[in-house]
Write a structure and sequence with these properties.
The chain is α/β, with parallel strands linked by helices. The chain has one domain. The protein contains three helices and nine strands, in the order E-E-H-E-E-H-E-E-E-H-E-E. The strands form two sheets. A five-stranded mixed sheet has the order 2-4-8-9-3. The chain has a four-stranded mixed sheet with strand order 1-7-6-5. Strand 5 and strand 6 form a beta hairpin. The longest helix has 16 residues.
Length: 157
C-alpha cells in the first residue's frame, strides 16, 4: 500500500516546471556523454531495448530549479524516484512515487492547459510502456543539466 502523498519541502522547489517529450531514439544520446552530476539511466530502461520505436515520443517532466537545482536533484536521488504521475482532480497534481511506498506532491495546478498537457503526458507514458523521464536543470538554456532519471512506472510496464 502506498503512503498518502506529501509535498516536497518548499526549500527545494525550483523556478518552473513543464511537461515535455523527447524522441525515444534520441533520449540516451542527449544525456549519456554529458557531465550530469546525478543521473539514473539504467540499460534495462533503454527505450529501444524495451521495444519502443525510435520515433516514439518519450514523455517527461522538466524542472528548472535555478539556484535550487542541485539541492533538488540531491533530494530526488535520496528518495529514489520510481515514477511521475499526473492526477486530475479538484486541484490537479504532479505526484512523484519514490522508494517502496512514498509519494510526494511536486506541484498542484488548476489550469485547463496544464490539465490537457498532463493528460497527454499520461497517454504518452502508457504508449511508451511506462517509460518516462524526470530532468532537473538550472535553467531552460539546454546547456547544463543537474540530474536526469529514466523511469519506468511499474503500474504501466
Amino acid at each position: 500500500m502506498l503512503n498518502p502523498p506529501v509535498p516536497i519541502p518548499e526549500t527545494l522547489w525550483g523556478d518552473r516546471w513543464r511537461f515535455a517529450s523527447i524522441v525515444a531514439g534520441d533520449f540516451l544520446d542527449l544525456f549519456l556523454d554529458r557531465p550530469i552530476p546525478l543521473s539514473f539511466l539504467p540499460e534495462m530502461h533503454d527505450p529501444l531495448r524495451v521495444g519502443l520505436a525510435s520515433s516514439q515520443l518519450l514523455p517527461g517532466v522538466v524542472i528548472n530549479g535555478g539556484r535550487k537545482s542541485m539541492p533538488l536533484a540531491r533530494w530526488l536521488a535520496g528518495v529514489e524516484p520510481i515514477a511521475v504521475n499526473y492526477v486530475a482532480g479538484e486541484l490537479d497534481g504532479v505526484i512523484l512515487r519514490a522508494g517502496e511506498r512514498d509519494r510526494h506532491i511536486l506541484t498542484t495546478v488548476a489550469d485547463p492547459e496544464v490539465r490537457t498537457a498532463g493528460e497527454t503526458f499520461m497517454e504518452r507514458k502508457q504508449a511508451a510502456k511506462g517509460l518516462h523521464f524526470l530532468l532537473i536543470q538550472p535553467d531552460d538554456s539546454g546547456m547544463t543539466y543537474t540530474g536526469v532519471w529514466l523511469l519506468r512506472d511499474p503500474e504501466v510496464a
